[in-house]
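Q: What would this chain look like folded?
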Amino acid sequence: MSSTTPRNLNRISSIDERLLRQKRRTTASSYSLSYSVRSSAPAKAGHGCAGRGKGRTNTDCNGLVNSQRLELLAITNDTRKPVWRRRRRSKEEETGRAERQRVGAGAFTKLIEIAPARAIARALMVPARYLVDGLQSSSDERGNNKNDNNRNAQKENDRKEIVYVPDFEREIEIANAEMLRLSGYDVGEVPFVMQAVMYYRESLDAGVLRTSLAKTLKKYPILAGRLDLKDAREKGARLCNFGVPFRVVNETFERTGWKTIDDLPLDFASESRRFLDFAPWIDLMLGDAPAFTVKITNLPNNKGSVLGVCMSHAISDGQGFVEFLITWAEIAKGNEGHPLGDPIFDRNLLPIDDIPKTNKEINEMLMRENFVGAGSVDTLVNAVKAGRALAPDFLRFPAGNRTMIKIPRKNIENLKLASKASNENEALSAHAWLQLSKLSGLPIGADFQHVTVVSARGGSKGLPPMYFGNACIGVKTAALKVGDCGDDVAKARDLIKPGLRKMLKDRSKYLMLTESAFRAGVNAYDWDCLAFMAGEMCWCNNLVEIYKKLYELDFGTGTPELALPPELNDIVQINASRPTEPGMPAGENGVEMFVNMPPRVMERVNMKENISILAGDRY
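A: My prediction, written as structure tokens:
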């Protein structure tokens, strides 16, 4: 660890920033910044914050250079790649870029900037610090509360400990901890928590998972930190190393009678919540709760284990979440990390150069792009009226509301022929929109938009695949109305396809517009937010390729036999079919389409004849 003290920290950072700028002017097209703690080993090329193409350079993970706790070791050049040179920005350009990098917040999270609002929220959350097994028990933000210790001492089958970043100072005061800056989009996602639950036939080795998690946290120190959203001009995650709660429970399942993983729930429901440890979302916003939690539930008589993990959506989106889990599993098996390299946290890689300086200019740009604003109060009212809950999962329909519809491979092929689609996603998107518009209960001619979620990672101009942050955005792919297509799925596909092409072509632009809206503190999108909250659109999130990766999570005792599809805010979520038998790959037998509309609509969706139609049996 560096001997740098707080008093000379700024001076050292200033020197290193000048050295870094000098190095950038001669660097090659691909270089990385490699960090280590208490280490003198040279950095490895290709790891760290890798660059992403002409006109983009990396900084030191959000401009934080050589702090008291993170030491910059090396900048490595890849001489095999062509050298490009970047025009040096003028002082005026650099000033403008700095203005654009200042992070605002979504309209809802602006309340966290107000000290009295934080105090009231914190007081309200005291009796509900953690939601565990459906029960509430108090805990401080570090998970070291005496009540927890007493409870664990009394119950040998329930062990909870904290996993820290190794070789790194523990439990640093928030005010003194390094901040990893978050984007405006990240901050806007702070009320949401991602969840994943995997069933393993062979019992997991908790010791291996604990040790490998600590090693993984060296690459992902943000997960052992806490959110800090108090400052209106700078929001991020403090690298305070408060640690990750790691809990191991040996269950008897006396109430449910579950004995093996074959008895466990087949989808997220109130019963499966017991496999997760997560804090109320208000606690996450206040910085009083961990960004990531782990719970291992061992079944009776060594009949398998359940791994349940939760991660704050403010830290990353689902793709970053899954890539982290892959990194953890690889390290558990003795490998160095993810095959694609180390995570990239640099928010300067986002397409921020075109974001205007002032909120007025941002609003004018959003209006030109036909982004429509929605008031926070109206948004919440529409959500609650539709049946969405505010707690424990923010703005989600109740657990168990959604329905899984299996679409076999042969039905998908028939659907592609009927819709004349060029790929599976086109066919499924058109099919989902057409059938759900009929089941929505809305009158003929009512708006029923089609929105698709797309990632801004990958490709020649996209973000790096290992970018760890929010980079998946919803884009309106068709402004459709109920009855537009009759019963013609090919016509629905024709109306949606241009939007799908435009979405892929302009995804970086849409990410820039979304980031701009969050920085300006407005709820504005190119799709109808109020209709989304009311469940009156076809918001379609195709997670087939990401979801398959959950079945690759081998921590040394084998891959999961079942991975519960993530329960998100999506109205339509498409996942790969689960393996038909142990050891078989996911996705061999088509897809599973999860429909999650208002409860009154789900009554129609769940009718036998409608399930058959949604499964594509008619094609």
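The radius of gyration is 24 Å.
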